[in-house]
Amino acid sequence: MNIALIGYGKMGKAIEQIALQRKHTIGLVINMHNQNDRNAEKLQSIDLAIEFTNPEAAPQNVKQLLSFNIPVVCGSTGWQNELPVIEQFCKEKNGSLIVSSNFSLGVNLFFALNTYLAKMMDNFKDYQISLEEIHHTQKKDAPSGTAISLAQQILQQRNDKTNWVNHPTNNNNELGITSKRIDEVFGIHTVNYKNDIDEIEITHTAFHRMGFALGVILAAEYIVDKKGIHTMQEVLNISF
Predict the structure, then answer these.
(1) Catalytic residue among 42, 119, 135, 194
(2) Rounded to two decimals, what is the model's pTM?
């Protein structure tokens, strides 16, 4: 594949490294200094675009790429409220799109475990549920997209919880998420169930960006010749 990298921060550079290792080429790199190069002429020879920027830029970036008939893998988080509009645009354009809050193999296995545990724990509502996410201090959005995905999975399994909030809570209808920012932490997500007798806790800890980068390239390899909206569960053949 000839890949366009939209965003060239630490994740963009890690994705580039994995892409080259897997014998792909990087035909275009867009950063804050050459935004105008994201145009039809520059994208003419591009097979697929990988978008890792910020929640303010991502929706328009993805929409523009789809309008140029470029398949898109997007890992920018913090813009989930606008996702339905972009997905509808993708369908109208007969485009190709994967948007994920986390491309790591381990995290997607963790998603499956979280969903299964939440479904099982629905019969034991005396356990109080809470989430915690810890990331590096440069992460702009809070809670993390991964934490929101975990929360949404739990809410889908629990009729006693109506919404998540980004702070600890004693409201039985709410699911509290605590966000912490600590230098050089790639990502730690913990789901906790606790009552007066005991507690159950599941945690995923990321040690390096390369796990995320590999998942991104696997997603790119999966979607490049497909149409429609796809998920990391399809890429990794994980069912839950």
Answers:
(1) 135
(2) 0.84
